[in-house]
Write a structure and sequence with these properties.
- The mean pLDDT is about 90.
- About 40% of the residues are buried.
- α3 packs across α4 and α4 crosses α5.
- The protein has a six-stranded antiparallel beta sheet. It has a six-stranded mixed beta sheet with strand order 8-12-13-3-14-15, with helices on both faces.
- Helices cover about 40% and strands about 25% of the residues.
- It folds into two domains: about 180 residues, Rossmann fold, CATH 3.40.50; about 180 residues, Glutathione S-transferase Yfyf (Class Pi), Chain A, domain 2.
- The chain contains eleven helices and 15 strands.
- By secondary structure, the protein is α/β, with parallel strands linked by helices.
Length: about 375
């Protein structure tokens, strides 16, 4: 699987862009705030319909424009896919694959599998549980359409239930309808808990092996799924906490409160680990993500690295670069020193200056 080309029109600071990628390592370099990350965002959006930054469609469209277009050409299993995405400030986005419109965003998932690695990911262990849930959801939604459907239904039901909990203060006669939302929440919530549990169990041995190599056999890293409630107890716990939910106007039980625990030599590194241990574990996690996706889809995912190398020391830089040599990679950075110093093979270099991209053939 490789991305062959990307075209942008009225996308953030790009009035117009047309670029072709190499199947190996592609470097986007330039000063900060020039538009490097915008290119990665557009690629990620082409595979998932979402911004990896969490931005809304109207925030992506260029200033004073009403629409934006993304066209990405992907080669996969000797087939070529042209993904067109039409963003609008008013109305839903339009999506087409090989000029055939698709009605549901989930029909796009699976064509382009992407792993994103940004500086924020190095803090996934240190930060709150929302980041760790997002990690699970971002990857599972790409590799499992059923999970995507279940998660979408769950989130919609959760919003409706929370709205009802607030409305009941003024309209207590609606209380009987709470059972309907509870049934739907339990049905999809149990499926989410089961799939997340399976995902972490699949990921754990891969993380363990990679972290062993990264630390020279000095550390044993384990990751544990910590559901807020298990499948069997979800229904009972939801009922037991109903009065609490009515009091505070929000749902206190369910997979929207799940977390992941990271242990090094059986010690919780979120609480007791050093910053170096946390960063190394995060690096192991992202590299494991690439491996597990590869095993599931039987192909190489696309790796997007957004200015990560500057956050790592030389040994971690070397380990990362040596483990992505057979994966199409698009990297953003402010300079090329790390690649030259590590003698890393670069296939294509682009310089990004104020929303313009120039291929640099002299350095390669």
């Amino acid at each position: 699987m490789i991305i062959k080309s990307l075209e942008l029109l009225n996308y953030r600071n790009y009035e117009s862009l047309n670029m072709e990628f190499d199947s190996g390592t592609n470097i986007l370099y330039g000063d900060n705030a020039q538009g490097k990350t915008n290119i990665l965002e557009a690629v990620y959006l082409s595979g998932t319909t979402k911004s990896h930054r969490g931005s809304k469609d109207k925030e992506i469209i260029s200033f004073e424009k009403d629409e934006s277009h993304i066209r990405t050409v992907v080669e996969k299993n000797d087939n070529e896919y042209c993904i067109d995405i039409h963003l609008k400030k008013k109305g839903a986005k339009g999506i087409a694959v090989n000029k055939v419109p698709i009605k549901k965003a989930r029909d796009l998932f699976g064509i382009l599998n992407i792993v994103v690695f940004s500086p924020e990911d190095l803090y996934i262990i240190k930060e709150g549980p929302q980041m760790r849930r997002r990690f699970m959801d971002m990857e599972l939604c790409q590799i499992d359409r059923i999970y995507l459907s279940d998660l979408t239904k769950y989130n919609k039901t959760l919003l409706q239930r929370n709205k009802l909990l607030k409305d009941l203060y003024y309209r207590p006669e609606l209380k009987d309808t709470l059972d309907i939302w509870d049934m739907q929440l339990i049905e999809t919530g149990k499926k989410i808990i089961a799939r997340r549990n399976r995902f972490i169990n699949e990921l754990m041995p891969v993380v363990y092996d990679i972290h062993k190599k990264l630390t020279g056999d000095k550390e044993d890293l384990k990751i544990l799924y910590e559901p807020e409630t298990d499948e069997e107890s979800f229904e009972r716990n939801l009922k037991e906490n109903r009065e609490k939910d009515l009091k505070f106007g929000s749902t206190s039980v369910g997979p929207h409160h799940d977390d992941i625990k990271f242990l090094i030599n059986d010690t919780d590194i979120r609480k007791y680990g050093s910053q170096g241990q946390q960063r190394t574990s995060a690096l192991s996690l992202k590299l494991s993500e690439i491996k597990i996706v590869e095993e599931i889809i039987k192909d190489k995912p696309i790796l997007l690295m957004d200015d990560v190398l500057s956050e790592l020391d030389s040994s971690r830089q070397n380990f990362l670069l040596n483990n992505i040599t057979d994966t199409q990679t698009i990297v953003t950075c402010t300079g090329l020193d790390e690649f030259i110093k590590n003698r890393f093979e670069i296939d294509k270099i682009f310089e990004v200056i104020e929303g313009h991209v120039y291929e640099n053939k002299e350095i390669v």
